[in-house]
Amino acid sequence: MTPIVLALVLTVSQAVPPPTAPPPTAPPQTAPPAVQELPPVQPPPAPAQPVQPASVPAPALTPADIAARRDHIGVFEGVLAKAVVIGAERASREVRTVNPGVVIMTMGQARARGFMLDGYGVFFDVDIPGLQPSVEMTMAQMQRERDLAKRLEPQQSNAMPRTANSLAESVVVADDPDTQYTAAVITSIIDAMLEYSRPMNVQPGEWLSVALRASEASTVPGEIRDSQTLVLRIKGSDLGDYFAGRITRDEVRKKVEHREF
Description:
By secondary structure, the chain is an alpha+beta fold. The chain has seven helices and five strands. It has a five-stranded mixed sheet. Helix 2 packs antiparallel against helix 5 (177-195). The protein is elongated and about 145 Å long.
């Protein structure tokens, strides 16, 4: 029995084929690294535009505030009328330093009327009386014209012919009463606006305006007067800074606007 078993084992072992090795596999394909895209170049930001401060709206006044402001407007009317008188006195003193015999006298009294304008502030209209002609002023004017002619006589011989008006316009006469009177009144009015307007409580977004115009009174019958109106005005915020001591008197005077109509 033993030989038969061995033969069967050998026969089976010869029939089974030997194991074969698996075929080699190709290495995995790796994708090439992606090219990193650079971010787009942004243009430099435009410089920021300065923000304009919005105008401060005037707060609504209570009925009590309105009544108080009307009372103070009436007081300030008298202050402006008195300021014109002070300006005339100041001009008279300045003129007398040059022409002692000249006395400045006005034709009538100054008048001021004030109004409260909703959404704007306070507005005043002031009539400025003209100067009363006098013998002394007439003589002083004649003397100035003679002095002017003497100063211009050497120039006329070597220059082109010029009219009398153009010659007069080329020289500013410092002691002219009208010129000094106008300048003194304007200065006095501005002083009053800065020093006596506080009780009216002009708000930061409001204006205090004073219009100056020559009075309609005339000494010549039928004379047509062509006078200009000068408006002086200042913002309530500038007045508030001055009253609080944040700006000086010289600084606040520069903030007073001058407009002619």
